[in-house]
Amino acid sequence: MGQLYQTQRAMRHMRKAAMQRGVIAILDVGTSKIACLVLRFDGDAPALEGVGSMAGQSNFRIIGAATTRSRGVSFGEVAAMAETERAIRTAVQAAQKMAGVRVDHVIATLSGARPRSYGLDGEVEIEAGQVTEGDIGRVLAACEMPDYGDGREVLHAQPVNFALDHRSGLADPRGQIGQRLTTDMHLLTVDATAIENLLYCIKRCDLEVAGLASSAYVSGISSLVEDEQELGAACIDMGGGSTGISVFIRKHMIYADSVRMGGDHVTSDISMGLQVPMATAERIKTFYGGVVATGMDDREMIEIGGDTGDWEHDRRTVSRAELIGIMRPRVEEILEEVRQRLDAAGFEHLPSQQIVLTGGGSQIPGLDGLATRILGQQVRLGRPLRVQGLPQAATGPAFAGSVGLCLFAAHPQDEWWDFDVPAEKHPARSFKRAFKWFKDNW
Predict the structure, then answer these.
(1) Residue 426: its pLDDT value, please?
(2) How far is residue 314 from each of residues 300, 307, 308, measured CA to CA in Å?
(3) pLDDT tens digits for 209-242?
(4) How many CA atoms lie within 13 Å of 406's alpha carbon, on the beta-carbon side?
(5) pTM over 0.85
(6) Cα dist. 113→106, 257, 259, 281, 434 in Å?
(7) How crowded is residue 429: how many other Cβ atoms within 10 Å of its Cβ?
(8) What residue ranges carry the coiled-coil annotation (predicted)?
(9) Phi, psi for 4 (deg, rounded to 5)
């Protein structure tokens, strides 16, 4: 638990300090773009903290925004430190310039890092008859920690449900009277190296990290409407290098995972299939791409264009049906993977099974229909919530993570490190992988 636990505590304190100063930046380090938004907070806003939904609109506005093409990031993880550092500096400087303020603290999100979810539970007797802050710390400490392996760190550790005696489904039991307190906690672990690289990279940009969040989680916060977060829904965030999956119920994330494929893989299939450079393939995908061919598409010809100097090669055309034939298998493969992860998580046990697609990769025409067929549920395309001051260019699905990170910065949910958790940890005995406790508790 060690090092990151201390780091997370320090980050939470730093975030509070930055909020009091009034500005903080958020940094979405993705495979295809790096986005930086500068938030200004009004006065004594953090009174809204505590367990519960974070979608409370909102005591901040965006005063600076910038994006730059990502460099040195693959599968949502930093692969080339110096290049990523340059790209982060570019985005942060441009956002600061627009905001007219200097920012020292950032809250960052990461999308790769092979997330793994665990559902834990713990119970304690209440000594004073009334639940105190200390009791919450004790019940969290009573959760049996899974042996999640070397080289992994805990990124999120959130109590998602409390029960006091026989009353379950409590969001915040503090102050209530009872004898036995139990909790269900969702623990998300990630690859430690991926986190260390990102933290190191941001530090090299002379910035302090005041928070870290999983991008699958923050995309869900911004793209699922309140009812979906309450009744049960999955957010599928299709990025460039990876596709994040998060499942919410009772306004808490209870499962997250990621598939190491995204829109870039579709682009590289086009690039190889048509033998064109990646930049040309990206343009063709954006303007003409799709996954459902109709009779019309055999006749619609797309000029590939090129500047090799070989006239025959540069004047080639391809029918839209052929382009769809290249794109569709890869998109199907990504969705099949997503379905396997949702099945493994026990998604079908939720009372509601809405699926929301978001992220830049979700903009391929016809994707929602294909996803409905493969995932077998109601699927809708999601756009992030509107937040004050967000530039028009940043309101699309590609910014679901960035907007969610703003909401996360403004109203973080309670996590393990916010409480004084007693030190004596239980030996890791059995643990239940992600929401198997569902059937008993919801």
Answers:
(1) 46
(2) 18, 6, 7
(3) 999 999 999 999 999 999 999 989 999 999 999 9
(4) 33
(5) yes
(6) 19, 10, 10, 27, 18
(7) 9
(8) none
(9) -65, -30
CATH 3.30.420 is held by the domain 119-191+418-441: no
Q: Are 247 and 425 in contact (CB under 8 A)?
A: no
CATH 3.30.1490 residue spans of the chain: 119-191+418-441
Place of tokens 């306004």: 251
- Unique residue bearing structure tokens 């919410």: 248
**Distance from C-alpha of 234 to C-alpha of 354, rounded to nearest angstrom:** 6
